[in-house]
Amino acid sequence: MKFTNKTDIFFDLDHTLWDFEKNSALAFDAIFKKHAMAISLENFLEYYIPVNFKYWKLYQEEKITQQELRYSRFKEVFDLLDYPIDDEQINFLAQEYIHYLPTFNHLFEGAIEILDYLKSKYNLHIITNGFHEVQEGKLRNANIAHYFITVTNSEKAGVKKPNPIIFEYALDIAKAEKDKSIMIGDSMEADIQGALNVGLDAIFFSESDYGDALKVPQIRHLLELKKIL
């Protein structure tokens, strides 16, 4: 399948262009070393990755606040590890994490090459559920901010993907036509179904094989976009 009528491409950021898991691990490693915390990074991440996913889903569904997300994911992991820490320290580390996270800038393989390729053909944009201050830092430090004409985050839009409002908001500020636009992301619920629900085409990015059941094209490497766009 090849899309031939598109003018605007909307990317998710985390887990799509920006390698969240790798950069997150580096941020925690730096924090643990800075504060001489006797904690195994490997053990911590074993719990943190699924716990973080759980709380982000709750945040995405408007069931918890930003502050609850930042505190609760740490609280639960430290409890699971039976690591002695009080609420003040948890809140401090949560802020440290937000500070350190965007300072690391690993992208998925092929990200720069595909952005160079697409930039000459399309208007490029970002739609992210991430926090404004953090996402801006990621784009800047990874040296990819200049590729994107607009950046829509959930704080600006007032809602999170898959809410239709954030997609409509992004299309509006991009001055993009719905039938000439496409969404690329790693979340089947937030990015793909969210886009389809408002009439946007979509491309699913995942290194895991989802077989033939998908309603949309899937890529497992960013450079595969050259075959589709």
Automatic annotation (TrEMBL):
<dbReference type="InterPro" id="IPR011951">
    <property type="entry name" value="HAD-SF_hydro_IA_YjjG/PynA"/>
</dbReference>
<dbReference type="InterPro" id="IPR023214">
    <property type="entry name" value="HAD_sf"/>
</dbReference>
<dbReference type="Pfam" id="PF00702">
    <property type="entry name" value="Hydrolase"/>
</dbReference>
<dbReference type="InterPro" id="IPR036412">
    <property type="entry name" value="HAD-like_sf"/>
</dbReference>
<dbReference type="InterPro" id="IPR006439">
    <property type="entry name" value="HAD-SF_hydro_IA"/>
</dbReference>
<dbReference type="InterPro" id="IPR023198">
    <property type="entry name" value="PGP-like_dom2"/>
</dbReference>
<dbReference type="InterPro" id="IPR052550">
    <property type="entry name" value="Pyrimidine_5'-ntase_YjjG"/>
</dbReference>
<protein>
    <submittedName>
        <fullName>YjjG family noncanonical pyrimidine nucleotidase</fullName>
    </submittedName>
</protein>
